[in-house]
């Protein structure tokens, strides 16, 4: 059976990348010429992002990145999509390729111990292990590992404060961290080790690699994994789930939540309806109307 037509490549690499600003136009031009869409972030500490396109387009990008001295060892993960998962191509300059907001945290100097997906179950089943989900609350809400601690963070910037508040519960234990593709755990484990907590582990390749490699019958993962593209979520074997994204607040919604009276496409959902003003809802409704008109004309609306 052939794979779906769109290859989705998730990648990141930490490097000393002082020329990141000058590199942006060259990278952007190549991605556009290769027909790719998605987002790539560049910073002095490296590159991070997810893009999608044809097999040839993705191969061209990866070869181009490997040709850069800073990214010669870059690894990427692939999945597939039936429909184009991104609307446009963006290359952005940032202070950090994953924003935690703690200056000096450098995974190139200190980081946790990588654990292959095949060995992850044994680690997190050990009663001496504290399993920590480093993702944000809306991601955790649709799936996580058995017995994992949810820090209830709205953004990754809140994670360091959660660690500091729970220092006593982590110190002296095995700490196993995980995230979607691995990058947040690079920063998270580096930060925790900088605090003097030494027995720190993280899932190599993240949840996506685990769902790709570990058979469902052996899995300790429950639910789906949120992804930052139009698929919304994937399950075992990286098969797309049945979630819908609220275009007003970006929260993933189950089919039951979509049927709620609080769900109005592009305007509100059960998670944000009480937080929006009448002006917000009017603005969102107009945006949704423009999306509908563009669809009728056979065009893509960038707000969709």
Describe this structure in words.
- The chain is an alpha/beta fold and 304 residues long.
- The protein folds into three domains: 6-93, Alpha-Beta Plaits (2-Layer Sandwich), CATH 3.30.70.100; 113-223, 3-Layer(aba) Sandwich (Oxidized Rhodanese, domain 1); 243-304, no CATH class.
- Helices cover 31% and strands 22% of the residues.
- It is built from ten helices and 15 strands.
- The protein has helices at 20-33, 55-66, 117-125, 137-140, 159-165, 167-170, 183-194, 206-213, 255-258, 278-296, and strands at 6-14, 37-43, 46-53, 75-81, 89-93, 113-115, 129-133, 143-145, 174-178, 200-203, 221-223, 225-226, 233-234, 244-245, 252-253.
- The strands form five sheets. Strands 4-1-3-2-5 form a five-stranded mixed sheet, covered by helices on one side. The protein has a four-stranded parallel sheet with strand order 6-10-9-7.
- Helix 7 (183-194) links the parallel strand 9 (174-178) and strand 10.
- The mean pLDDT is 92.
Structural descriptors:
single chain; 304 residues; alpha/beta; Alpha-Beta Plaits; Oxidized Rhodanese, domain 1; 3 domains; five-stranded mixed β-sheet; 15 strands; 31% helix
List the helices and strands and how they pair.
Layout: E1 6-14, H1 20-33, E2 37-43, E3 46-53, H2 55-66, E4 75-81, E5 89-93, E6 113-115, H3 117-125, E7 129-133, H4 137-140, E8 143-145, H5 159-165, H6 167-170, E9 174-178, H7 183-194, E10 200-203, H8 206-213, E11 221-223, E12 225-226, E13 233-234, E14 244-245, E15 252-253, H9 255-258, H10 278-296
Parallel strand pairs: 2-5, 6-10, 7-9, 9-10
Antiparallel strand pairs: 1-3, 1-4, 2-3, 8-11, 12-13, 14-15
């Amino acid at each position: 059976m052939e794979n779906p037509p769109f290859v989705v490549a998730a990648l990141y690499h930490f490097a000393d990348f002082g020329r990141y600003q000058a590199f942006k136009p060259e990278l952007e031009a190549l991605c556009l010429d290769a027909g790719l869409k998605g987002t790539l972030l560049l910073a002095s500490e490296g590159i991070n992002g997810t893009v999608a396109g044809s097999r040839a387009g993705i191969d061209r990008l990866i070869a181009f990145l490997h040709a850069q001295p800073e990214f010669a060892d870059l690894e990427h993960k692939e999945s597939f999509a039936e429909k184009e998962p991104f609307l446009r191509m963006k290359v952005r300059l940032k202070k950090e390729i994953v924003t935690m907001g703690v200056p000096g945290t450098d995974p190139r100097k200190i980081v946790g111990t990588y654990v292959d997906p095949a060995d992850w179950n044994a680690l997190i089943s050990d009663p001496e292990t504290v399993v920590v989900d480093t993702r944000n609350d809306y991601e955790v809400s649709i799936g996580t590992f058995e017995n994992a601690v949810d820090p209830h963070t709205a953004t990754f910037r809140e994670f360091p404060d959660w660690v500091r508040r729970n220092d006593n519960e982590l110190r002296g234990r095995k700490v196993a961290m995980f995230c979607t593709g691995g990058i947040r755990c690079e920063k998270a484990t580096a930060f925790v080790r900088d605090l003097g907590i030494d027995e720190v582990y993280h899932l190599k390749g993240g949840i996506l690699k685990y769902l790709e490699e570990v058979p469902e019958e052996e899995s300790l993962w429950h639910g789906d994994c949120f992804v930052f593209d139009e698929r919304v979520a994937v399950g075992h074997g990286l098969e797309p789930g049945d979630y819908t994204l609220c275009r007003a607040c970006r929260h993933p919604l189950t089919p039951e939540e979509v049927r709620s009276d609080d769900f109005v496409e592009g305007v509100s959902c059960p998670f944000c309806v009480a937080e929006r003003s009448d002006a917000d809802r009017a603005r969102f409704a107009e945006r949704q109307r423009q999306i509908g008109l563009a669809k009728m004309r056979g065009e893509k609306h960038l707000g969709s």
